[in-house]
């Protein structure tokens, strides 16, 4: 928590368990400026509000999309400053949005120099905001203070750090910057294993600073907007970063609010999700405690991050109940908004064997639209082919929810996006279709591949190879074949290793005698449990392209 003055302090994301200390330090009000669902480890505002009320603190929700602070938002923040008991603690992802809102709210109340001095004392550079105020609210123009880099990478996740390392491995003299406000980097493929009691959550997290490649500049900020015609990225706080070439890979957004009532009950009432760092351990707790009743596992409409993850959670849970002689007392229902169990038909027979083994009822075209945690009821919209849409209400004792997923807000409204909101790229070269010096990879781009970490592992060398070729004045030399991998954990100790590319073409990495991906094997489990995590941390993120060398574009 950083004090701007005696009335207002700002902070990065807080958690419900922090509220007791916040109250002890004398704060009387909380303002949340971070929209729910922005981060994978983020508690929703209702959790913060409930904890605040228990301690007698006022709590208000004024969510601001990163970089989209309007004059009205500043007025609303100023109104809260006037009405709420003080001192006030405002928070967002890093504190920058809250500091920006305060600065703009004071534009007509304090001299600009005083605003700048107070925010600087709290550790926030609001020079861009002051320029905005001085310019009458207009977007700031380029100044001598604007940073410039050969390559700017938006996103410090698996895709961003991997492509930075792959670029440096090919051309070590590049000036590269990664823009990402997060303090922690997560190995998200491990959360399925956390929910199954195999991994500890803490083992899936490392500090961002420890993973940024040596020599790469880390700009710890959120992106507000893109100005591709000017080769510029506008940051939260209105700072400008210029680039020679841009790589866009911020991941996707988990839209928890799209399911009515979901945010009110996450992490309690038997409602869980392996799609959030702090909730995956609750999945395992529920699985261990459940002796009888009904367990629901949901899958929303595509696209989603790792389309196999919803049923991975189901299989590992069912396997535990099977091995503890409880399976016969538990009714397992898979509620899938789509019409098939898995999109690549070659893997369906092996998966169906486990569906039958665990006695799972498959409910296709069932999309979760509302949930009442205390009443333990879930509402699904059912849209079956050639039938009228209807809704059904289903009771549950435990429900694992896979949230609807979209491109991040700042991507959807940008000139980089296609009509659906995803970054518009050529699916082979991963170069933007309209802007020649922009590339994209990972979950945010619109190539028709599976959104998995394994896909990013193959995409990073392709992007790096093509950027270096472009710097040398040559056309693209590497191509991406749509590779994605989904290790389907059908039981503890066995995995169906689905590996495929564009159009569902099977793209196995190993000879069939070693790993037959169309059937469950212990070798694939060993790969998932023992080999892939160190490969992720020590190879993929460091530019060591083990089994990921890019395929060359044919001269023909």
TrEMBL record:
Residues 3-107 form the Beta-lactamase hydrolase-like protein phosphatase-like domain. InterPro entries: BLH_phosphatase-like (IPR005939), FAD/NAD-bd_sf (IPR036188), FAD/NAD-binding_dom (IPR023753), Prot-tyrosine_phosphatase-like (IPR029021), Sulphide_quinone_reductase (IPR015904). Residues 149-262 form the FAD/NAD(P)-binding domain. Coiled coil: none annotated. It comes from the Bacteria. SUPFAM superfamilies: FAD/NAD(P)-binding domain (SSF51905). Pfam families: BLH_phosphatase, Pyr_redox_2. This is Bifunctional protein tyrosine phosphatase family protein/NAD(P)/FAD-dependent oxidoreductase.
